[in-house]
Design brief:
This is 3-dehydroquinate dehydratase. This protein has one domain: Rossmann fold (3-Layer(aba) Sandwich), CATH 3.40.50. About 40% of the residues lie in helices and about 20% in strands. It contains 5 helices and 5 strands. β3, α4 and β4 form a beta-alpha-beta unit.
Length: about 150
């Protein structure tokens, strides 16, 4: 069974309450539940991880590499624009990944326009709220050639 690790970065534990006009009203628990149902229907093993600590996110990326996960779906949140070490961890893990954002960084403040991860990512999906995660999972499933 193909395996996918979904990693949520800083402040995403506040989804549904934090700036809902930007990030929507869907909670992280609701997003994870939607993804879990979809993955189960498609025969994909999914695990979830969220942390507000950069070193914990890096450790989870390392772990995904050690456990030979097939894919990572990651929303690095604000670390997108600041974390060279998260980039290095993703490069070292050797697991293909999709970068996900709820909002569209290019439509926001100029400091959000640069991603340290974009050139390593297989793809980026942003601006579709909670659906950004589902679109990323669909893209991964398409790579496994599984029926949806």
């Amino acid at each position: 069974m193909p395996s996918v690790v979904v990693i949520h970065g800083p402040n995403l534990d506040l989804l549904g309450r934090r700036e809902p006009e930007i990030y929507g009203r869907t909670s992280l628990q609701e997003i994870n539940a939607q993804l879990a149902r979809f993955a189960e229907d498609c025969g994909v093993a999914l695990s979830f991880f969220q942390s507000n600590a950069e070193h914990e996110l890096i450790a989870r990326v390392h772990e995904a590499g050690h456990e030979a996960a097939d894919w990572i779906i990651i929303n690095p949140a604000g670390l997108t624009h600041t974390s060279v070490v998260l980039r290095d961890a993703l490069a070292a893990a050797g697991v293909p990944f999709i970068e996900v954002h709820l909002s569209n960084p290019e439509r926001r403040e100029s400091f959000r326009h640069h991603s340290y991860l974009a050139d390593l990512a297989e793809g980026r999906i942003s601006g579709f709220g909670a659906d950004s995660y589902l679109l990323a999972l669909q893209a991964v499933i398409n790579r496994f050639d599984l029926k949806t």
